[in-house]
């Protein structure tokens, strides 16, 4: 887990950057199929999605997920198994981010009007959660935690030299 602002920024940048890239690729592929313009469509949607995801992560979803985790979910057993704290917070983050980012994606695609908005949102949310959970827990999370561990290790090495 990040211990200071620098580590939080690095961790969030990696986590949000890779998750938005993966989820953008997934959603564009679902929407447009695999075509010659797929890469361009992914890159076109990436910057705005990344900006929204970082804001949501730092200001809305992150603080709420951590507060809920430590107040209602994380007990003594989980505290004694450090990895479970990270997994618990990750799952709550995924639930929150998918909830907001699915709405964002529908809005960007102009799908917020019409009689079937709840069906469209429910479908989008379900398909996004099915992709986001394994993407975050099996790929992006371990990468981000690995990089954070190296940053923390190098910080400890520098502090030890001083």
From TrEMBL:
Keyword Hydrolase in record: no
Keyword terms of this UniProt record: Membrane, Transmembrane, Transmembrane helix
Residue spans crossing the bilayer: 9-28, 48-70, 82-108, 120-140
InterPro entries: DUF2798
Domain of life from the UniProt record: Bacteria
ATP-binding in keyword set: no
Protein name: DUF2798 domain-containing protein
Origin organism lineage: Bacteria, Bacillati, Bacillota, Bacilli, Lactobacillales
């Amino acid at each position: 887990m990040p211990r200071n602002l620098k580590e939080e920024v690095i961790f969030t940048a990696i986590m949000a950057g890779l998750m938005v890239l993966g989820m953008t690729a997934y959603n564009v592929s679902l929407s447009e199929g695999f075509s010659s313009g797929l890469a361009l469509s992914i890159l076109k949607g990436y910057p705005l999605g990344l900006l929204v995801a970082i804001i949501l992560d730092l200001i809305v979803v992150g603080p709420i997920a951590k507060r809920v985790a430590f107040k209602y979910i994380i007990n003594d057993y989980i505290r004694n198994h450090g990895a479970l704290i990270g997994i618990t917070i990750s799952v709550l983050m995924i639930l929150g981010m998918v909830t907001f980012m699915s709405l964002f994606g529908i809005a960007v695609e102009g799908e917020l009007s019409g009689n079937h908005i709840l069906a469209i949102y429910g479908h989008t949310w379900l398909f996004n959660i099915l992709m986001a959970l394994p993407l975050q827990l099996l790929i992006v999370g371990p990468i981000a935690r690995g990089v954070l561990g190296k940053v923390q290790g190098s910080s400890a090495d520098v502090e030890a030299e001083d």
